[in-house]
């Protein structure tokens, strides 16, 4: 079985998630894709990427300022192993980026 899945979610609000995730506020959106083959964990092979953006994210009991944050990850899943090949965190003004490079040959 082969597949290509994509999603694009906007307008998320942590207040609506209070029954499952109490004590947080802010908005979020996300988008992503997965493309691969196989449905069993032993034979699954897929590539993925995910981007999530949080605006005015805050733990309501803390004395911290709200945080704007964007997270981007991508990689592969092969036979029960999830490999992260790219990670970007952007909190403006701070950013963190990590990449994995594999050379064939």
Features:
105 residues; six-stranded antiparallel beta sheet; 6 strands
What this model shows, in words?
The chain is mostly beta strands and 105 residues long. It has one domain (2-99). It contains no helices and six strands.
Please give a quick description of this structure.
This protein is mostly beta strands and 105 residues long.
**End-to-end distance:** 30 Å
Counted by DSSP, the helix tally is 0
Domain count: 1
Structural class estimated from helices and strands: mainly beta
Structural topology:
Blueprint: E1 2-13, E2 24-37, E3 45-59, E4 67-78, E5 81-90, E6 95-99
Antiparallel strand pairs: 1-2, 2-3, 3-4, 4-5, 5-6
């Amino acid at each position: 079985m082969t597949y290509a899945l994509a999603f694009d979610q906007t307008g998320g609000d942590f207040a609506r998630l209070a029954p499952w995730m109490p004590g947080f506020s802010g908005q979020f959106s996300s988008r992503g894709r997965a493309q691969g083959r196989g449905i069993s964990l032993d034979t699954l092979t897929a590539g993925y990427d995910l981007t999530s953006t949080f605006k005015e994210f805050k733990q309501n009991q803390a004395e911290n300022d709200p945080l704007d944050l964007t997270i981007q990850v991508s990689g592969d899943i092969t036979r029960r192993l999830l490999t992260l090949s790219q990670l970007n965190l952007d909190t403006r003004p701070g950013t963190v980026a990590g990449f994995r490079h594999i050379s064939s040959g």
